[in-house]
């Protein structure tokens, strides 16, 4: 790349030799004259000493002479200091004060200090509150009452805390020492599961559920042994029964949280990540045994040999089995029901069912049947009275059995609430991932349950026969269905929807315990074993998960939240390695390789994780070897992801936006149009994926006035996590003051947008000061709003100086509708109409939306001298093709053109400014006047600086509309420099300082010498990708690497080459001149990087045919521009035909989100607080109507959300009429989630 040859204003390979010699003589003459003038000036500055003074000096003693010499040196030192001060003042005028980068800011890279424990509470209370997450919703009085039952126990090394055969009815919390948890095989082999240290606990939530439901079980295979002298806190689970008599709502909430943990933690870890399916459930339910006498807590000296996981241990377990009250099945009979091929066969089988109450069944082994095209239910023939009567009897018998199974004494509670359904064989009743599935009770036939794993065929996990329920877990938790239900044969079942189920629970809370017990009976003994090892932990925002060098004893699965990994370099520097969002694994490679932690990880926001110990993982691998294949798949995906990352050392915190789920919108002042901004951003985000806006009013309207209280923390977190599953981005709009909702929004956010007005003073707001007082580690971005008729951005440096915790900034030119003063409900009404139209992909809000979702498009312009005028033509073709640009970067001439485009965002103004610059550079007189004595360079650089100052003025890089960067070569540190802040013209000048024509630019920040960036990275597409760009349009106008040379031997004579060129009859040979050698030399260090960029998946490499132009052809601007424009039109037309541009604008940065949507879930799950249903006192109908009307007049309602079960469970006819009237106003276009009444 020889683009700096233009600075001499001559063509070195085309100009006559006379001109070259003349210029050389002129330079030599100027040098001689300068040297003579320097000598003359130096003599004039020397002051002659009179002879009398010289003689007097000679007579002075030597000591006096030394004193005068020291005084003279002091004067010289003072002069030097004054000169340094003058230089600094001069540099301060040239350059604005530096702004500290956010990636070096401790609040982003460091963990929060350890929080002090709450004073005034007993230590057992503190340990219990900290250790057992399922009890985290308890109020303080309940905790204090519960801790009265806590018992201190001391164990010596080697003593057993519990072992198989003892009653599993306590929770153990380690105060001091260490325990070892192990599993005992039937042959007596013990397998290490995990180590339990101080602050940790040992318990199984399934065992707690058994005790609460009255089905206490002994330990079967789990043993806990003290490996050190240990002090434990033991909390008997029986204490819950006594406490819950006074707090019935806590009982219901505890059961619900246990069910939630079972689905979201245990099943997620074992199924989604380890690929286990049939191993998680019992294929057929085991008949329950009679209650057993409680053995002593101390293990006997000798005990019988342990059997399989599901087998009983002691001799007492051999008592006769007792059937469940509602299960009247004769499983020993060898009777098989065949599939019916016709409707008549179904009715004949129905007659038999009615006579026998329940058919006996032996399920046959079968493969997964093919999925039917649709779900067809048998219609009931109203003309056939006999059949109607038989159906009524079948319904009655089914209700009686269901009532006994649910523990209902009054069967009439099921009247008008359950419905009888008949389906043909192979009918899909419910699919995996569906929302709103109710409770199903099989009356006749057989239902098979299947579970799918990515890349594998669905596996049948268990069979449901008459007398059994299905769908209990999803009804209890409100989570999507985790399996698919299909009829194996013609079947009949009762269906109880969620609303009716919640009505029954309100009047009879014990029903919840019966349903929860049926869930516990279905899980396999293997799940019960692993449940002791897998922990459900919560990490508060800013708290550390683990530090570098810690032992790798477990793997973490992110359930919800966001965590950041930071690596500490040997020199003490800290840099961000990555961020982990929902569903991602943390620390798995280190755990499997048994290496210490290589980096530190802390929570960006409040997060929930599943902790899987290495010992438990090893046990699972030995028990089910197929898990190894799944682990290899996960590791290979991680390795491939690491290989695709650029090798550069540049990692910007603002680039970690590929997996954002939640964004907090926070105002700097009360003048910010916060509601309009949020809705405008939502409009742009809807074009990428479904977006939800949440405010405090919406939360109150949707979840109730007490949803944000501490007792509802788990349910609220669960509901918010469900919104993350159903939406690509969730926007949390804060209030203008520091309210509980504002704090919740900040702690819930992956990224915080701080919104300010560009024409206001950059003073810190009330909410911003909160950042400095608390430990907020989320990514923080500054967004400055500008009016369309206002001035361009300026003074951004002042905003950033006041906010050193900002990671990046955006300038948004907002439309006039954003600044219009309207009431809140009028703003919502107006934007309902706006959301019906497509968003402008070229708007600044769309650019912000693409950046937040990790779908931004970057334009990278390479160096090449005058050939870079093709960049201007390519930009014009990009605009005509409708391709938006979100980031601009470049090297050399690319830095110049990119800076102009980032300032104006318009191809016409870019063309005008670049054309003006080309005319100035074509001036021979301007170049000759800039010649200097060639010690460091041929030119002084003053002429080139003046041209750039005329083009850019004193504009800062931070004031550009588009994010911009330029590349330079730092010869002081022998490294590449990326410039994203500072004076624009200076770093464009540095990026174009091609040696030997221009001298290096002295960076005013650190005095390093900067040269042309082409020496290290002529096409910095990898830098743009590291800054978060998903697609990079890289335009290369440099020289091609393939070229032919002539073998001239070991020596080369310049006179011979000159004669060869002048002689028309000699053979033409190709030997590079000094300028071409310099250009080729500049490509040596970056040719490998260029090849990697071409092969990368994120880069669209474009190379206009400009090789025939010289780097100094500045007078051929229009010709080179047209070449780039025609090339761009041809390329982008082909892209349109091949849907390249369409795919470029699609959201591909969140594959996990779209994988979750394949389940077909379209409804938004409700906030189902069963404890609220049990304990709520319903207000009078007229009072509730008045309150609802007041709320609906001022609060926007979320579209596509079914009426809450909480408000409709016991509504009156008047309330139902009012609600139906409100539902008619819903906007069902599928785009907007806001409605107005």
TrEMBL record:
A motif (GXGXXG) lies at residues 863-868. It catalyses: 1-hexadecanoyl-sn-glycero-3-phosphate + H2O = sn-glycerol 3-phosphate + hexadecanoate + H(+); a 1-acyl-sn-glycero-3-phosphocholine + H2O = sn-glycerol 3-phosphocholine + a fatty acid + H(+); 1-hexadecanoyl-sn-glycero-3-phosphocholine + H2O = sn-glycerol 3-phosphocholine + hexadecanoate + H(+); 1-(9Z-octadecenoyl)-sn-glycero-3-phosphocholine + H2O = sn-glycerol 3-phosphocholine + (9Z)-octadecenoate + H(+). A motif (GXSXG) lies at residues 890-894. Belongs to the NTE family. GO terms for biological process: lipid catabolic process; phosphatidylcholine metabolic process. Residues 359-375 have a biased composition (Low complexity). The lineage of its organism: Eukaryota, Metazoa, Chordata, Craniata, Vertebrata. This is lysophospholipase. It comes from Leptobrachium leishanense.
């Amino acid at each position: 790349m020889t683009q700096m040859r233009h600075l001499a204003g001559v063509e070195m390979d085309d100009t006559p030799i006379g001109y070259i010699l003349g210029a050389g003589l002129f330079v030599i003459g100027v040098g001689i004259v300068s040297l003579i003038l320097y000598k003359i000036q130096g003599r004039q500055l020397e002051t002659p000493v009179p002879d009398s003074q010289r003689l007097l000096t000679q007579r002075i003693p030597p000591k006096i002479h030394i004193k005068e010499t020291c005084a003279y040196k002091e004067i010289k030192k003072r002069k030097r200091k004054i000169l340094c001060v003058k230089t600094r003042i001069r540099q301060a005028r040239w350059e604005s004060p530096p702004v500290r980068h956010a990636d070096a800011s401790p609040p982003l890279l460091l963990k929060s200090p350890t929080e002090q424990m709450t004073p005034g509470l007993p230590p057992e209370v503190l340990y219990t509150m900290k250790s057992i997450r399922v009890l985290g919703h308890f109020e303080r009085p309940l905790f204090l009452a519960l801790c009265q039952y806590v018992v201190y126990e001391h164990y010596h090394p080697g003593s057993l805390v519990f072992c198989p055969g003892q009653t599993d009815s306590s929770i153990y919390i380690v105060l001091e020492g260490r325990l070892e948890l192990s599993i005992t095989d039937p042959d007596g082999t013990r397998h290490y599961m995990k180590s339990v240290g101080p602050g940790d606990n040992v318990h199984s939530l399934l065992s707690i559920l058994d005790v609460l439901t009255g089905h206490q079980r002994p330990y079967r295979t789990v043993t806990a042994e003290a490996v050190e002298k240990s002090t434990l806190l033991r909390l008997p689970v029986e204490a819950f029964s006594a406490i819950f008599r006074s707090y019935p709502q806590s009982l219901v909430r505890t059961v619900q949280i246990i069910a939630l943990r079972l689905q979201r933690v245990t099943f997620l870890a074992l199924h989604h990540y380890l690929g286990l399916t049939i191993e998680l459930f019992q294929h057929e339910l085991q008949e329950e045994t009679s209650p057993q006498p409680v053995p002593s807590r101390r293990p006997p000296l000798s005990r019988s040999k342990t059997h399989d996981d599901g087998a009983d241990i002691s001799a007492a377990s051999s008592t006769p089995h007792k059937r469940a009250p509602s299960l009247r099945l004769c499983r020993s009979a060898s009777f098989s029901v065949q599939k019916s091929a016709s409707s008549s066969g179904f009715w004949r089988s129905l007659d038999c069912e009615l006579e026998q109450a329940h058919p006996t069944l032996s399920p046959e082994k079968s493969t997964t049947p093919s999925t039917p095209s649709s779900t067809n239910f048998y219609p009931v023939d109203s003309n056939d009275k006999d059949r109607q009567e038989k159906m009524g009897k079948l319904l009655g018998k089914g209700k009686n059995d269901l009532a006994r199974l649910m523990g209902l004494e009054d069967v009439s509670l099921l009247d008008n609430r359950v419905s009888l359904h008949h389906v043909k064989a192979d009918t899909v009743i419910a699919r995996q991932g569906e929302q709103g599935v109710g409770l199903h009770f099989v009356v006749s036939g057989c239902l098979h349950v299947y579970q799918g794993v990515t890349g594998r065929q669905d596996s049948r996990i268990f069979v449901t026969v008459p007398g059994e329920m299905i769908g209990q877990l999803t009804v209890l938790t409100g989570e999507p269905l985790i399996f698919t239900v299909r009829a194996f044969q013609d079947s009949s079942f009762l269906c109880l929807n969620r609303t009716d189920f919640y009505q029954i629970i309100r009047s009879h809370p014990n029903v919840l315990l019966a349903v929860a017990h049926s869930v516990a009976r279905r899980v396999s003994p293997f799940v019960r074993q692993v449940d002791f090892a897998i922990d459900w932990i919560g990490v508060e925002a800013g708290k550390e998960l683990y530090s570098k060098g810690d032992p790798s004893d477990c793997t973490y699965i992110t359930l919800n939240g966001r965590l950041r990994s930071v690596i500490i370099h040997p020199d003490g520097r800290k840099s961000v390695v990555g961020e982990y969002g929902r569903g991602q694994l943390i620390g798995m490679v280190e755990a499997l390789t048994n290496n210490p932690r290589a980096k530190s990880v802390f929570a960006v926001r409040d997060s929930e994780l599943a902790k899987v110990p290495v010992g438990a993982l090893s046990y699972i691998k030995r028990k089910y070897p197929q898990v190894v294949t799944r682990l290899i798949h996960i590791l290979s995906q991680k390795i491939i992801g690491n290989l695709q990352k650029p090798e550069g050392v540049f990692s910007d915190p603002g680039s970690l936006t590929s997996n954002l789920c939640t964004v907090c919108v926070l105002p700097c002042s009360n003048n910010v149009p916060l509601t309009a901004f949020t809705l405008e951003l939502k409009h742009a985000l809807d074009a990428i994926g479904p977006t939800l806006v949440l405010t405090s009013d919406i939360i109150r309207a949707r979840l109730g006035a007490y949803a944000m209280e501490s007792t509802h923390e788990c349910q609220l977190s669960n509901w918010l996590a469900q919104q993350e599953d159903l939406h690509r981005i969730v926007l949390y709009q804060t209030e203008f003051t520091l309210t509980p909702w504002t704090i919740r929004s900040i702690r819930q956010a992956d990224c915080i947008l701080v919104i300010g007005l560009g024409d206001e003073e950059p003073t810190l707001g009330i909410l911003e000061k909160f950042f400095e007082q608390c430990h907020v580690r989320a990514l923080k971005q500054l967004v400055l709003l500008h009016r369309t008729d206002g001035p361009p951005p300026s003074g951004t440096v002042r905003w950033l100086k006041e906010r050193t915790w900002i990671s990046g900034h955006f300038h948004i030119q907002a439309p006039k509708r954003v600044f219009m003063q309207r009431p809140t409900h009028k703003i919502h009404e107006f934007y309902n109409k706006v959301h019906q139209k497509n968003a402008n992909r070229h708007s600044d809000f769309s650019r912000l939306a693409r950046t937040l979702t990790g779908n931004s498009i970057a334009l990278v312009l390479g160096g090449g001298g005058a050939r870079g005028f093709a960049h201007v033509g390519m930009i014009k073709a990009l605009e005509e093709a409708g391709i938006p640009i979100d980031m601009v970067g470049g090297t050399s001439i690319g830095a110049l053109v990119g800076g102009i485009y980032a300032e104006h965002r318009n191809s016409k103004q870019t063309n005008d400014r670049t054309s003006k610059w080309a005319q100035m550079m074509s001036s021979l007189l301007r170049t000759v006047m800039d010649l200097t004595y060639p010690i460091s360079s041929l030119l002084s650089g003053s002429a080139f600086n003046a041209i750039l100052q005329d083009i850019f003025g004193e504009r800062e890089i931070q004031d550009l509309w588009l994010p911009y960067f330029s590349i330079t070569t730092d010869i002081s540190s022998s490294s590449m420099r990326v410039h994203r802040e500072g004076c624009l013209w200076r770093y464009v000048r540095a990026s174009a300082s091609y040696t030997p024509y221009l001298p290096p630019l002295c960076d005013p920040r650190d005095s390093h010498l900067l040269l042309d960036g082409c020496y290290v990275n002529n096409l910095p597409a990898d830098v743009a990708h590291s800054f978060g760009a998903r697609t990079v349009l890289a335009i290369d106008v440099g020289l091609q690497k393939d070229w032919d040379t002539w073998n001239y031997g070991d020596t080369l004579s310049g006179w011979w080459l000159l004669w060869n060129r002048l002689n028309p009859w000699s053979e033409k040979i190709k030997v590079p001149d000094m300028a071409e050698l310099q250009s080729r030399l500049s490509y040596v260090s970056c040719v490998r990087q260029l090849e990697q960029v071409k092969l990368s998946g994120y880069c669209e490499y474009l190379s206009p045919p400009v090789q025939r132009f010289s780097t100094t052809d500045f007078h051929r601007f229009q010709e080179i521009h047209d070449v780039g424009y025609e090339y761009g039109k041809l390329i982008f037309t082909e892209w349109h035909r091949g849907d390249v541009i369409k795919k470029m604008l699609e959201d591909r940065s969140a594959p996990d989100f779209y994988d979750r949507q394949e389940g077909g879930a379209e409804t938004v799950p409700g906030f189902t607080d069963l404890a609220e249903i049990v304990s709520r006192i319903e207000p009078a109908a007229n009072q509730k109507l008045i309150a609802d009307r007041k709320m609906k007049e001022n609060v926007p309602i979320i579209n596509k959300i079914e009426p809450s079960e909480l408000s409709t469970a016991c509504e009156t006819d008047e309330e139902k009429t009012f609600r139906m009237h409100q539902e008619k106003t819903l906007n069902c276009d599928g785009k907007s989630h806001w409605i107005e009444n």
